[in-house]
Amino acid sequence: MRPYKVLIFIACVMAGLAALCVVLPGRVAWGEKELHWPTLAQVLEISTDTLASMEIDSIALEEFPEYEDSVPATPQYVAPPTVHVDSVTDSRIFLSAFYASLAETSHKTVRILHYGDSQIEEDRMTQQIREAFQSRYGGAGCGLMPLAQTIPSLAVKQRLMMNDRFVTPAQGPRRYMVYAPKRDQRADGLYGPMGQVAVMNDSLVHGSEEITAICTPLYKGPLYTRWKVFADTSVHYSLAGDTVRLSGRGNVYGLSQESSAGVIVDNIPMRGCLGIVFTKMDRNQLTTFYREQNVRLIIMQFGGNAIPSNQNPGTIFAIVKGLREQVQYIHSCTPDASILFIGPSDMLTQIDGEWQTYPMVPYMDRLLRKMALEENIAYFSLYRWMGGSGSMARWQEIGLAGSDGVHFQRSGARKAGNAVANWILEGMSNE
Amino acid sequence: MSDFLHHILAFDADSPLLFTQFYFWAFFALVFAVFALIMEAVPDRLGNKKLHLRNIYLFFVSWFFYYKTSGLFLLILAFITLSDWLIAGRIKSAITHQKIPIAKLWLTLSVVIDLSLLFYFKYAYFFTNVINDFLGTDVRVFDIFAYIGNGFAQAGRFSVDTIILPVGISFYIFQVISYTCDVFRGRIQPVKNILDFGFYVSFFPQLVAGPIVRAEEFIPQLYKPYRLSRRWFGIAVFWIINGLAKKIIMSDYLAVNLIDRVFDNPLLFSGFENLFAVFAYSLQVYADFSGYTDIAIGVAMLMGFYLPMNFNSPYKSQTPQEFWRRWHMSLGRWLKTYLYIPLGGNRTIFGFKVKKLWAANFNSFITQVLGGLWHGASWNFVLWGAINGAGMIVEKIWREWNWHIRFAAMTLLTFCLCALDYIFNLPVWRMFAVWAAIVWVGTAIRYIYYLCQGADNKFTKAMATAWAIVQTFTFITFTRLFFRSSSNLDPATANEVAWATAKNMVNQIGGAWENAVILPFLWEYRWVVAMFVAGMVIHWLPTDWKRRYRLWFSAMPLWLMVMIVCLAIIVIYQFVTADMQPFIYFQF
User: Fold this and answer.
1) Structural domain spans, chain A
2) Is A309's CB within 8 Å of B582's CB?
3) CA distance A303 to A117
């Protein structure tokens, strides 16, 4: 075949495709589906990649007085309404009670609970907060862990034995979780502070199961000096080194490796959770735990799980309303503790083949901040700290974020954890 | 307008010319237009001059392509081209004058220069890391080329703390090594014109990701006139469309919607999801790599150049050894010719004559390990190569045994793994025990059939073949747990991530299977599952069927072919713009 014929073939294919670009308006409805085809302008457009020039850390974490957003409206997403946020102040003023409590760390423990979604699994981000506070105010140990650790942690490695035989967490005691599907929830709300409970000898009439948890610390910081076991009085336990041996029958809400003074920081990940679960947890139990364990700061890091499945501003608004109720509930359980809310990170999805920020991320960020200021709690905008819209793509490029456009890599989590810790600590020096 | 021209002509690290992007095809259309003009307008009576003009043109086009992809690393390509062209001439001259030791010295110099550059750019971090690990030092890499570059440009223009891997260096270094070796062995004559040689080294369709074209396969084509039959034209178009579909549908779509997210965070997914992702990853790697080379082969063919086949349905292999004969065939042939045989092949180990089987096993194992290191500069790739090498050896030994020993060995292995699982109850032993039990069942059936002296018939042969294919595919798939790495620059990170990923995936597969997730997963990810199943079914179609539909496509009228190509591109584009598959657990 002569080269000119090949050239004509190539030209015909390109002309045919270009004609489609002219004829089709970008998207054509085809039943319930849409047929996508770019316009000529889109094909010839030279993408100006603003991300390439974006510097990580270039955006200082300020309080963004105007807090203005321009949310891209794409056909498949409903453009969210404008949210006006008061140009208040540094929200860290709402951490004053926590800052004051740190004076007590020389003779007793001050506890920080870090609740969050999958972004904090494996002790991510919590680890840096713990290291920052323990190096400054003393304290040791990784804090709370569940009896059956289904998700490994970088802080502690757990092996479980049942009647002296190694078992996997799934083969271990029956677990109920406040953030699990209905079949794994319980009606009485007795989940303990971690939102999950393991029930010893749940299925047996006569409790004969003995459970041994060998929990080896993995972190490099100072080692814990004591164990705590949060369980019903009907559960008996003995301690030896890194091993806890439990028998009897009843609920085990968690184990803790900690020191007798200083700061204890607990990592409590709730996979897939929107954060609207605390009101299902027993008030008395939470109140007692928070008081007795001297919990002085509660960090709530939620919102990200709402983004991918909800493209409607109304739904996002309702979810933030639900989160507000959780904040109020926790506040009512422990009025003396400070609360810090960490909003979702930047999150990416593919829109017309391009990785872009979910249009609802900036909207949710604004709503959460508004809610936080109205509820007198501190707010850390992870989204803005990262660099705002599209910053996750930059994080991916330099290996700080995973390819799903949602989760941090460990290095990214370290960076974010350090930023949160420094932000809290700097707030104290500003006081 | 100046911005537009700058974008078209200047190097931009963020927008290289990729086969899957419009800009590449616009570039190719322009290149082919000028190419056609040369071939049509220059009279045939000019003979070699016409071919020379074509080669020079494609040489400069290829350099522009590389510049767009890698910027100033073009200088490395230029240096390699010049150095090996000069040395090949010296080798030939020495051989002509019967000075074999001198020729050997020149060949050694050429290989040392080539491998030094490869080691510098690709393995600097790896060896620095090894030195630091063994000696407890804190040596850092220092980019001497950046330092020199800063002397010419303004200070600080290039970072001296980072050594960036030039795109395609592993491929073109191997090509030039094959050239000087082939000249030394007398298989080819050295190329007289440096531009012709430069064209061989840098021919743009295969420059950045192969296939690795050996000198003796390609250089003779430089002097042959353009020839493309109607049928071969159709085949070339088929390879291009086939490659695009593989890359975008089977590779990118599966990767973005499932595989990447599972490998990034295995603990977020159940054991079943992890297992599915590992198998899907096997398909993705194949579709990605073979899709790219399919396009390269098709594009080269349109310009009248024939590149070697690089993949031959590798997941149809019945043994690991056969797999490596079907997978990345151009690399396999290269390693065999320039590494395995010089190491001693099946005759010697380090020059000592030993039993044939020992020599073959030892040298093929070393070749696999080094082949692993070629794929990436970190220990996980070495481990991956070693597991593949070990698999080949075990399979060879297995073949030597009779059925009584095979069954006894498999029973013992299964018993041991089940015992380990019972005692330690660790996910890794659970996974191996289940795998061994499945293999044991297959072995037992074949053993019983053997004891009953059952005759081989079509059905039993087909069953045995299918069983062997599934076992080999499963083995190769599990080696890929170590194949995926997050960093090419920092081997410590690459090792840490690869090891953590493999460990977490095994933990989930062996310890958090979660049957309840299977049905929701299959439903929610139905498109991903459908693409995976379709990909495997197409892959396993009989070779003859595939040949037939290729021929059917190539023989269709051109107007119909234009329409089918347009339709195929429209379908492929739907996968580019498809909505992301949400995480199941987001819906809790």
Assistant:
1) 83-113+261-401+425-431, 140-260
2) yes
3) 8
Task: State how far the Cα of A153 lies from the Cα of A257, in Å rounded to an integer.
Answer: 14
Spatial distance between the Cα atoms of B328 and B174, rounded to a whole number of angstroms: 14
Which chain A residues are Cβ-neighbours of B580 within 8 angstroms?
A: 308, 349-350
Q: Is it the case that residue A69 has pLDDT exceeding 50? A: no
Nearest neighbour of B511 by CB, restricted to A35, A170, A407: A170
**What local confidence, expressed as pLDDT, does residue A263 receive?**
95
E-only strand ranges, A32-132: 33-36, 109-116
Query: What is the reported pLDDT for B517?
Result: 83
**Nearest by CB to A46, which of B4, B487, B577?**
B4
Q: What is the pLDDT of residues A224-270, one digit of tens each?
A: 888 999 999 888 899 888 899 998 888 999 999 999 999 999 999 99
Question: B32, A10: Cβ pair inside 8 Å?
Answer: yes
> What is the residue-averaged pLDDT of chain B?
87
pLDDT at A93 over 70: yes
* Percent composition of chain B: helix, strand, coil (DSSP 3-state, to 5): 75, 0, 20
User: How do strand A156-162 and strand A211-217 relate by DSSP bridges?
Assistant: antiparallel
**What's the CATH number of domain A83-113+261-401+425-431, 3.40.50.720, 3.40.50.1110, 3.10.410.10, 3.40.50.150?**
3.40.50.1110
Residue B375 annotated as catalytic: yes
Query: Cα(A26)–Cα(B445) distance, rounded to whole angstroms?
Result: 57
Nearest-angstrom CA–CA distance, B437 and B440: 5
Q: Summarize the confidence of residues B36-60 as an average pLDDT.
A: 86
Please write the tens of the pLDDT for every residue from B378-429: 888 888 899 999 999 999 888 889 889 999 999 999 999 999 988 888 888 8
Closest by alpha carbon to A421, among A151, A118, A157, A95?
A: A95
Q: What dihedral do alpha carbons B66, B69, B73, B76 form, nearest 10°?
A: -30
Contact assignment for B256 to A403 by CB distance below 8 Å: yes
* CA separation, residue A33 to residues A24, A352, B564 (Å): 15, 14, 22
Backbone angles phi, psi at B129, to 5 degrees: -65, -40
**Residue A199 host element (H or E):** strand A196-200
